[in-house]
Amino acid sequence: MFQRIEIQKLRDGDNLILGFSIGGGIDQDPGQNPFSEDKTDKGIYVTRVSKGGPADVAGLMTGDKIMQVNGWDMTMVTHDQARKRLTKKNEDVVRLLVTRKSLEDVVRQSMMPH
Amino acid sequence: PKPINFQKALSQSLRQDSITMDTESTYSGYSYHSGRSRGSHRHGRIMSRGERRTDLRETGTLPFSLAEEGLPAWSLLSWKGNCRGMPLPGMLQGAYRTAILPPFERSFGLSVPSPPHVGERSRDRHKSRSKDSSRSEKSVTINAPPAEPLLGDQSTRGDEMQDDNWGETTTAITGTSEHSLSQEDIVRISKDLDESVRLDCRRYLSVSLSVLLGTVVLLTPLAFLVLPRLLWPEKLRVCGTACEGLFIAVAFKLLILLLAVWALFLRPPHAALPRLLVFRAVLATLVLLLVLSYWLFYGVRILDTQDEDYQGIVQYAVSLVDALLFIHYLAVVLLELRQLQACFSLCVTRSTDGQTRHYSLGQLSIQRAAVAILENYYRDFPVHNAALLSASKSRAAKHLAGLKVYNLDGPGGNSAAAAVGVAQSQSRAMIAAAARRRDSSHNELYYEEAEHERRIRKRRARLVVAVEEAFTHIHRVQEEEQKKPPGEAMDPREAAQAVFPSMARALQKYLRTTRQQHCHSMESIQQHLAFCVTHSMTPKAFLESYLTPGPTLQYSRERWLARHWTLISEASVTSGLKDGTVFLLKCIDFSLVVTAKKIPYIKLSEEFIDPKSHKFVLRLQSETSV
């Protein structure tokens, strides 16, 4: 139940921005994550998507859990490591593997016999 | 005046009470030398009173012992191993057996020990014989043939195994039979005398040798300094302040050495050990070698050549004193410091009632560890009360009682192998039969113990009330005395004696129920009461020593039952303790089983750990925009 999202980074002056915010990590407190179903889940979640930004255009939604970034695993990283993987200066495109609860429901619904 | 009348009235009742406790009161007033004859009378008299027999037989008839007579340990080995009448377990027969004497009164005299020999041995004989006779009523075959080596005894024992008429052939013990000495006894006593002479000579020898060595060592530096002045005074070069400084140094160092030797070696020894103390021997040899080599050099280099440099000679003497001080430092480290750090935990268990204690000791030889344990035994272990063990013995006897095995093959087969095989099969049959029949002994045990507890508590309540009344009476009398003009103040002893009969009965009943009555004589109770009154202790404080059995040391020496110890060990007694060392300290009534376990080696290592990983960290939820 994963979705692959490809985001083109937008050049804003000297930085490359993606247009969303992340939260979570193995050094963070998982109990405060509003988006996770399992409150011990220390993965990286998308907390906010800025409207009209590259992430919004690519189809990223708030509450998505990012599993991989360009092939790098994001389920067992610290917050800072995640930020670094997303903001590499020499990459223009990030390919994310995300999962969301609503996605699972949709797939399950479609698989269920009516 | 009231107190005196009260006293008179009470003393009359006291006399009546004293009759019932007659046996206890006759215990205490003895001097040591009359103890033996009274002891045998006690035996003769007590035979009529069935219920008392257990207590007195177990507590021993003789208030004095071989140790106090100065009879050394080696002689114990010759008769100790023979007289018990039961074979030692096989593995220990080849082991070292040394006896350790606690020298409570170290008398170097060689007194003739005949009475205790006869008394103690015959007491052992008496005990084992009566045990066998009672056993033969209940079970026929589990007796091993008693290994009694004395020729004089075989005739009186008879053949208990196959003889059903044992009542007609065994000799009854009366009070007079302990006085007789057989020929074997006389031979043995004379042999022991020779051995005791030899051992005391050995002790004298070691003491005198060490004293000689000490004086030689201390006088040597002085001799070094004085001889040149005497032999060639005119050739010596005058030396000024340097020499005087060295003289003062020599004087003070010798004084320090003297004090140190006194502190370390001249303490009264608390134990006499059978084997050589290895470290002391090594140190003595070292000192001797040092002094001899110094004398050698002195003789060759200084006396022969008549050296004129007096300062050099004085420095030579100072160097000797320095070397002696260093050897003394070595002695302190070897003899005292090495065993301070705890290396082993020794578990000491009393074989009869299972009392266990654990002690930590350092690296000691087995003999010294045994001495340390015995010292701790007297302080920690509650006094051995043989009367408390009779319940389990009777239970064990009842378990196999009522089963009689008949040997249908007749009294043939006299070979040892056949007899052993028959005995084994018979015992196996008995065990199987006993296991099969329905055994409700656990039920009986439960109810018996519950009943016993209830009885003890009842008696205890009565005792506490009686003692409290007695003490309040004393307080009242004291207050009255204080109000009146100071006439005759009541002595605490008189107060105790006046008040004692009112609680004597309750106390006696309580002691009898808890089977402690042989530990306390009437005299000792009165003394204790007077002591408590003198120091204004409460009734609870007075009763404490009767409600709980105290450590062995608190009782008088007759009650200890543990005066002669035999150390049984497979390893040599001068070898050090190792992990898993087991040795036995045997005494007449019980033995202490000692097991040594090594304290584990602890390794602490250093490793860098992120301080955040083991501390509480408040984790926030941070959000980063990318």
Please give a structural write-up.
The complex is a heterodimer of chains A (about 110) and B (about 625). Chain A is of the alpha+beta class and about 110 residues long. Chain A has 3 helices and 8 strands, in the order βββββαββαβα. Chain A has helices at about 55-60, 80-85, 100-110, and strands spanning about 5-10, 10, 15, 20-25, 45-50, 65-70, 70-75, 95-100. In chain A, the strands form 2 sheets. In chain A, strands 1, 4, 5, 6, 7 and 8 form a 6-stranded antiparallel β-sheet that branches. The longest helix of chain A is centred in the C-terminal third of the chain and has 11 residues, at about 100-110. Chain A is globular, with a radius of gyration of 14 Å. The two termini of chain A are about 20 Å apart. The model of chain A has no long low-confidence stretch (mean pLDDT about 85). With about 625 residues, chain B is of the alpha+beta class. Chain B has 21 helices and 7 strands. Chain B has a 6-stranded antiparallel β-sheet, with helices on both faces. In chain B, β2 and β3 form a beta hairpin. Chain B is extended, with a radius of gyration of 34 Å. The model of chain B is unreliable at about 1-95, about 100-160 and about 175-180 (pLDDT under 50).
